Amino acid sequence: MIRVQREAFDVGREIAALTAGNTRIGGVASFVGLVRDLGGLRSMTLEHYAGMTERQLEKIDAEAHRRWPLEASLIVHRYGRLEPGEPIVLTITASAHRQAAFDSCNFLMDWLKTEAPFWKREEGADGERWVAARTDDDEARERWRETG
Amino acid sequence: MKILYFAWLRDKAGMSECDVSPPPGIATVGQLIDWLAAGDDRQAEVFADRSVVRFAVNQDFAEADTPVGPGDEVAFFPPVTGG
């Protein structure tokens, strides 16, 4: 499942809702991305391409299910104006075994970093600037490339 | 054809979207970019450094040789920075 929303999310509630009633699940992995302030950040505004964002997140989610034996998964990504410390993104994966949950959760984040159409603009004391893409995000995405 | 701009490409374009009717012969994203960039100074500025412009056709990532035609939604944006 995927959701794109302005509002904050509650990790505990999301995990409980995702796993309720499914006793085949033996492990749940989750990742929460936060707005980081390394000095002087007032806020961060996330813009996205409504429509394409949902399509891309659905594809990323489906790809995780194709690669790992998942019982359930969830991607929640926020948009709009966020302040330092606020959660931006949540990925949860649930499987019978922990390794599939860990690996697929990592995969979801690496893929959405380069495949989901979001753009961050930072507001600091000296004005606003668009965040530049990171090459190590591309490298992180590449390590999941299937060979053969 | 609907054109969308995001992030700082939108700032450069001075608008978030517009409708265009390219002449016959504009059949790919690459040709569309050439045609838009030749149109006016703002568009020329948007596409000044094409190495940092990514695009999507009908909400899927596209390449310069991806076909485009009437009724398509073509979006231009910088490399994504979500997550």
What would you note in describing this structure?
The complex is a heterodimer of chains A (148) and B (83). Chain A has 148 residues and is of the alpha+beta class. Chain A has four helices and eight strands, in the order βαββαβββαββα. A four-stranded mixed beta sheet of chain A has the order 1-4-6-2, sandwiched between helices. The model of chain A has no long low-confidence stretch (mean pLDDT 95). Chain B is an alpha+beta fold. Chain B has one domain (2-77): Roll (Ubiquitin-like (UB roll)), CATH 3.10.20.30. Chain B contains three helices and five strands; from the N terminus they run βαβααβββ. The longest helix of chain B has 9 residues, at 29-37. The model of chain B has no long low-confidence stretch (mean pLDDT 96).
Secondary structure elements and their pairing?
The complex is a heterodimer of chains A (148) and B (83).
Chain A: E1 2-5, H1 11-19, E2 27-34, E3 41-48, H2 52-67, E4 70-78, E5 80-82, E6 87-95, H3 98-115, E7 118-124, E8 127-130, H4 135-142
Chain B: E1 2-5, H1 7-13, E2 17-19, H2 29-37, H3 41-46, E3 54-57, E4 60-61, E5 73-77
Parallel strand pairs in B: 1-5
Antiparallel strand pairs in B: 1-2, 3-4, 3-5
Radius of gyration of chain B (CA) equals 12 Å
> What is the count of distinct domains of chain B?
1
Q: Give the oligomeric state.
A: heterodimer
Q: Enumerate how many helices of chain B there are, as a single number.
A: 3
Distance between the termini of chain A: 29 Å
> Which residues of chain B sit in consecutive blocks of at least 5 with pLDDT less than 50?
none
How many helices of chain A? 4
CATH superfamily of chain B: Beta-grasp domain
CATH homologous superfamily identity of chain A = Molybdopterin biosynthesis MoaE subunit
Q: Please indicate the count of domains of chain A.
A: 1
Which CATH architecture of chain A? Alpha-Beta Complex
- The helix/strand class of chain B is alpha+beta
The description of the largest β-sheet of chain B is: 5 strands, mixed
Give the strand tally of chain B: 5
Counting helices, strands and paired strands, the structural category of chain A is alpha+beta
Strand order across the largest sheet of chain A? 1-4-6-2
